[in-house]
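Item description
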Amino acid sequence: MLGQLPILSALVWLPALGAVAILVLRALMRGEDQAALERNARGVALFVTLFVFALSILLVIEFDASQAGFQFVETIPWLAELGIGYRMGVDGLSVLFVLLTAFLMPICILASWKLEKRVVDYMAAFLILETLVIGIFCALDLVLFYIFFEGSLIPMFLIIGVWGGANRIYAAFKFFLYTFVGSVLMLVAMIWMYLDAGTTDISVLLTHEFARDAQTWLWLAFFASFAVKMPMWPVHTWLPDAHVEAPTAGSVILAGILLKLGGYGFLRFSLPMFPDASAFFAPMVMVLSVIAIVYTSLVAFRQTDIKKLIAYSSVAHMGFVTMGLFTMNEVGVQGAIFQMLSHGVISGALFLCVGVIYDRFHTREIGFYGGLVHRMPVYAAFFALFAMANVGLPGTSGFVGEIMTMVGAFEYDPRVAAGAALGVIFSAVYMLTLYKKVVFGELTNPRLETATDLNVREWINLGVLGFIAIYLGFFTTPITATTAASVEALITQYQAALAAAPN
């Protein structure tokens, strides 16, 4: 039904049109009631994001999971004399990330409903960000991918720098500089690939054989960008600052989507295009992954800011992703993809839980809280669910992703799996300790006496995310069946390339 329709272009550009509509609305309503303008901006943003989410569901329904190749391909001539074109398409490695992005965006809009500062600009920034992020997952041209990839820094930089906390300027520039510098090396590598292959078409580059020596340098250039995006240890230090200063919805989209761009980059470029280099550097990635899992879990335990603790937890969970990806066996790669999708739901929910109490008491210090279960029992129940999912409790999506990546790691090297298992134990320690200090105990702080439980909007957000976290904990097939053919093709191509390489 959708084969002849430009659904990917619609998914990419509708949010941008929504942003333009909001800005035009401001121009038309200039001098009129400001409250009405802000209400209309929120309404337009919510309508557009919900419509895009509905389109993404239709995309997944129409997606043929039995096919490993790209589907819904769109090609429009653009700088044709240079071999550069507007090319869009999705496969099993990308289609679910489009769905995840479209799913989280309306939740971010709802989470920002009470925002009072520059509401019109804020809603426009989020819609532009949605356009750029969905564009990353749909782009089938190096130039187009790079434009979307780098362009996504701008609205996120503004979201942190304008609507963030007291140290927002420092955090915004640190976020921008870390991620931009690494991406410059990736741009140099892309130029070299274009000169070598004569095209920027990603589907063609996936079948192009790059020289083994060149693969090493190309892999390192892409790694410089994707490792920062994940982020991997030791280039992770920008993330806690960005999370702490970002508004609640900014943290949701940062943890839920933007951290996944590095993992997606490894899947789309590093592993299939540079297989020899990937095999050579895999042991290094495994070591860095285990260090990230163990070290950042220990650091998380020492945090006094709830957001910073969850930020370090995200670094640890991304360690499971890189570990699973570079096992290059089916269960490991499937687990890494599942972990990215699951973490997008769970981490987003945890940051929303922080936002709920921050909106009421304007502090994220763990020591301020205690005994919230006496005033906010529904909130305590949701927080417990997402804390357990973050730990990897069986019956939640967090368990599935972690166990699959660890099984894949065990096939690769049992010592890697043993190291990662320590991180599972440590995560239980810091999350249960956090939950105990915030929720249980006596209500000793008199300011907490006025605490009110979840409102309808917060119920909707956390309820939907809680349902997904539990559903995927029991029913994994919707994820694994969608990605299976593409993962199998990726591994087959990878192994064939290694077998054909001279010793």
